[in-house]
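subagent[fold] <- orchestrator: predict structure for attached chain, return tokens only, no commentary.
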Amino acid sequence: MDQPLNIVFMGTPDFAVPTLEALHHSHDHVRMVVTQPDRPKGRGRKVVPSPVKQAALEFGYPVFQPESIKMDSAVDTVRDVGPDVLVVVAFGQILPQHLLSLPRYGAINVHASLLPQYRGPGPIQWAIIRGEARTGVTTMLMDRGMDTGDILFTKQTDILPDDTASVLHERLSKLGADLLLKTLHAVKTGTLHPTRQDHSRATYAPMLKKTDGQIDWQKSAAEVDALVRGVTPWPGAFTYHGDTRLKIIRAAPLQETRPAEPGTVIKGFPGELRIATGNGIILIHEIQSASGKKMQIEDFLRGHPIPAGTLLG
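subagent[fold] -> orchestrator:
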């Protein structure tokens, strides 16, 4: 049987939890979990632990939460555990070189894209927004750069027509957990063959901002639909009806076209909201006003009619 590895796991959000769970049920030993400090969250600004911390405490692992992993004292804390490998999944801080080179097998990262495409913090959302047909997960050896290290393994998945960022996030987080276990098995059996990234093919996926959710009706119906799915659940796709901000939760592109200025409400069947785009028409299925709750479009329109000819923006 493979010799178990001593692991320091570094991660913070929901995406990292399935990998920690997979390690917990493996033959390897998680000696410590490093995660971001507890932060205020939500409207009440209540201080809450990260999802990874919650899982780590449930599994009984010691938790370390440095304000900065670059501090010598933080690196010393990790060194004292004596890890064979660091496993890093969406930790949220840049790791210094003297930490990366500390374990004998280095630091292995799980990234939610097919590198070198979509380096950076927003790979899941931007892959959908930009209309990619497929994406996946990559394990890589970390270096000083932003997702620039040598590739170890990849696993692809199709982006389905109704995938939102939330749905794809869930699927990729599980694929990432499986791929990490495959990677560690290769580490232990000496069958790892790192491959340098082709940096000329690299693309970047920046952190989403609230303004990234605003719909540009000049784009095609397919592009608007991709935006809606890519920014669900956050920051959410939105447009304006006069001064009222409307959040589009779910929509579908239609092939038909009718001459109208992009953003114009098109006459449809009762209970429908059809909007002209730069190419094609988008059919809205679910919507939310600024102060309201999510509603099916027919229910929303009963109390908030939007007549044909209205220009949204």
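orchestrator: received. Logging for downstream: The chain has two domains: 6-201, 210-303. Helices lie at 17-24, 51-59, 72-81, 97-100, 123-129, 165-189, 221-230, 297-303.
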